[in-house]
Design brief:
Structural class: alpha+beta
Distance between the termini: 47 Å
Largest sheet: 5 strands, antiparallel
CATH class of the largest domain: Alpha Beta
Mean pLDDT: 95
Low-confidence stretches: none
Order of helices and strands: EEHHEEHEHEEHHH
CATH topology of the largest domain: Enolase-like, domain 1
Number of domains: 2
Radius of gyration: 21 Å
């Protein structure tokens, strides 16, 4: 593949065109419910569409977090809310209740399946900065006994964004071969707001790549 640019040519095996997304709601009958076809559905934290009490929108149609696993998560939360309301109960709308999709906001796990993979969850340093959160960034090479066993000449990076006021993780990013499998532990730490002092006691098994957690905590502690 050859791309011709203003300042020369770029050659490669493949070309990835990332042009964004738009809502595909123009042919699903949105107008029947008084909604604008072709627009994302405006939903609340239980995925109920604003102004239409009987309608719920999960996954890509609401534009919140356009990932398969987040659509499944939203469906689980919406289902619980639908059942509660059908029983005449008012679902708890507080963060992390069984009826709301709180993880959409700041605890969404994502893996870019490139080579190497990029796996992340929670806030980036830039997002923490934009929100005015006191934070510290720890970045180290992803080099532990487990990574050398995983592949020869393994190279990677681990990044943690720590809330220095509360001493909890705001976000974690891993870059390297197979790092998507490291993401669930990071997701649990971010969702659970596990204190760094307690994470120190979550001993990673040797020799696995998860030992990178020990190295991150050591780097943070200095």
């Amino acid at each position: 593949m050859v791309l011709t640019l203003e300042d020369g040519e770029v050659r490669g095996d493949e070309v990835l065109v990332a042009v964004g997304r738009r809502a595909r709601t123009d042919d699903i009958g949105a107008e029947v419910a008084g909604l604008e076809p072709g627009s994302y559905l405006d939903v609340d934290s239980t995925m109920r569409v604003a102004g239409v009490e009987w309608l719920y929108g999960v996954g890509d149609v609401n534009g919140r977090r356009q990932l398969t696993h987040m659509g499944k998560y939203q469906a689980r939360q919406a289902g619980a809310a639908i059942v509660a309301r059908a029983r005449g109960e008012e679902p708890d709308l507080s963060d992390w209740s069984p009826f709301v999709a709180t993880a959409d906001a700041h605890a969404t796990p994502s893996v870019v399946f490139t080579d190497p993979q990029v796996a992340s969850v929670g806030r980036t340093a830039a997002e923490a900065e934009d929100e005015g959160l006191a934070h510290r960034v720890v970045q180290i090479p992803l080099e532990v006994a487990g990574s050398s066993l995983f592949a020869d000449d393994y190279e990677g990076t681990a990044i943690a964004v720590v809330d220095t006021d509360r001493d909890v993780l705001l976000g974690v990013t891993f870059v390297g071969p197979g790092v998507g499998e490291l993401l669930q532990a990071a997701t649990i730490a971010v969702v659970g707001e596990v204190p760094i002092g307690r994470l120190w006691h979550a001993v990673p098994a040797y020799p696995t790549i998860s030992e990178i957690w020990l190295r991150l905590l050591e780097a943070y502690r200095g």
